[in-house]
């Protein structure tokens, strides 16, 4: 079995590339995503085994030299379940720097907001699939009635020192203990509810207080709402990426709101006071007589609140003069009379019909 081929990477692939390949395959082949698919489950286990080796620099080096037999030398018998690697794939825990429970991974989720939410602020619920503490073993990873034991290979330090001779003399290197994965303890009787992880995966819902004026693409952080660490490790943070839905009427430019104000030609010609409904209340627009399409009307402090200030942007309305298309006979007669009084040349009645255009062309 070629571990590199299982993950779909070259033998020269870096650790980041290997991790990305594993995370992609783990999501694709996970039993939760393929219920009842025994082939996918078997491949998932093989991929987990491949990453367990290639994701560790020492195991990978032994595998490159001696194959699968060398890769299994000095490994923790309880690490072969692949569950720990699955947590790493979904809740990337990073590398270990010292012994003891490590902080869990930071997570990210997207929150979709409306423009109304942005103007007024909102308490938004977000749901994320995350790692939570196992309540059966109280996050220790050990079955009830048992406990974790100090690792006899590293003496509880989580690290092992290796001394080797070189042409420059003795060289001492320090590496993460393979038996306890750097935690300093081992578990002989793992908790059956979490397979010794001290955590399990479930969906959690949190409420995010979104302030008025937040921008599209902004990131809000919920401290301590990320994945919990393995066997009692602290929780990471949850980062909420803000996405704002398009509004059917308004366009946002910075802190300003832009919209079109449609008025009939009669109001544009004679002038009028036209009501307009904004997001947080109505305004009255004073349209002067003779107004033309494209003229702008600005209302101060009726736009989006500034994120870090007390002021607001403006509401800007662009005038659009609508030409009537559904005139009654009486209305058309009045317009023709107006055109005649102004000396404006217009088409004769019926000239826009198919028969009228035919007669006009050949007359």
Question: Could you please describe the fold and organization of this structure?
Answer:
This protein is an alpha+beta fold. It has 3 domains: 1-73, DnaJ domain (Helix Hairpins, Orthogonal Bundle), CATH 1.10.287; 93-244, Heat shock protein DnaJ, cysteine-rich domain (Chaperone, DNAj Protein, Chain A); 251-362, Sandwich (HSP40/DNAj peptide-binding domain), CATH 2.60.260. Helices cover 26% and strands 28% of the residues. The protein is built from 10 helices and 15 strands. It has a 4-stranded mixed sheet with strand order 10-11-15-14. A 3-stranded mixed sheet has the order 1-9-8. Strands 2-7 form a two-stranded antiparallel sheet. Strand 10 (251-253) and strand 11 form a beta hairpin. Helix 2 (15-29) runs antiparallel to helix 3. 26% of the residues are buried. Mean pLDDT is 84; it is low at 73-83.
Q: Tell me the series of helices and strands, N- to C-terminal.
A: HHHHHHEHEEEEEEEEEEHEEEEHH
**Structural class from helices and strands?**
alpha+beta
Total beta strand runs: 15
Radius of gyration: 35 Å
Uncertain residue ranges: 73-83
Strand order in the largest sheet: 10-11-15-14
Helix content: 25-40%
For the report, how would you describe the main beta sheet? Answer: 4 strands, mixed
Q: Roughly what fraction of the amino acids lie in strands?
A: 25-35%
Mean pLDDT value: 84
Per DSSP, the total helix count is 10
């Amino acid at each position: 079995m070629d571990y590199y081929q299982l993950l779909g990477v070259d033998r020269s692939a870096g650790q980041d590339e290997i991790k990305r390949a594993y995370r992609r395959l783990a999501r694709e082949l996970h039993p939760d995503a393929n219920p009842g698919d025994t082939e996918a489950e078997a491949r998932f286990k093989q991929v987990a085994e491949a990453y367990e080796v290639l994701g560790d620099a020492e195991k990978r080096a032994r595998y490159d030299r001696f194959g699968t037999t060398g890769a299994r030398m000095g490994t923790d018998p309880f690490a072969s379940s692949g569950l720990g690697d699955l947590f790493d794939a979904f809740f990337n825990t990073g590398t270990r720097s010292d012994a003891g429970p490590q902080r869990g991974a930071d997570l990210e989720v997207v929150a979709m907001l409306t423009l109304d939410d942005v103007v007024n602020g909102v308490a938004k619920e977000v749901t994320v699939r995350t790692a939570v503490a196992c309540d059966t073993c109280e996050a220790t990873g050990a079955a009830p009635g048992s406990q974790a034991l100090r690792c006899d290979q590293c003496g509880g330090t989580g690290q092992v020192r290796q001394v080797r001779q070189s042409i420059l003399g003795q060289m001492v290197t320090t590496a993460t203990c393979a038996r306890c994965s750097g935690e300093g303890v081992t578990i002989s009787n793992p908790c059956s509810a979490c397979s010794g992880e001290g955590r399990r995966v479930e969906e959690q819902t949190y409420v995010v207080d979104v302030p008025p004026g937040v921008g599209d693409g902004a990131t809000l952080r919920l401290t301590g709402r990320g994945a919990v660490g393995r066997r009692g490790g602290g929780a990471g943070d949850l980062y909420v990426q803000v996405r704002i839905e398009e509004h059917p009427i308004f366009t946002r430019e910075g802190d300003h709101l832009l919209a079109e104000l449609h008025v009939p030609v009669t109001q544009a010609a004679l002038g009028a006071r036209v009501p307009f409904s904004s997001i947080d209340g109505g305004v009255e627009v004073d349209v002067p007589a003779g107004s033309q399409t494209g003229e702008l009307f600005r209302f101060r402090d009726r736009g989006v609140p500034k994120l870090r200030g007390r002021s607001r942007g403006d509401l800007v309305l662009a005038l659009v003069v609508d030409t009537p298309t559904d005139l009654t006979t009486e209305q058309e007669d009045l317009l023709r009379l107006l055109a005649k009084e102004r000396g404006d040349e217009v088409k004769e009645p019926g000239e826009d019909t198919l028969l009228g255009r035919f007669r006009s062309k050949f007359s």
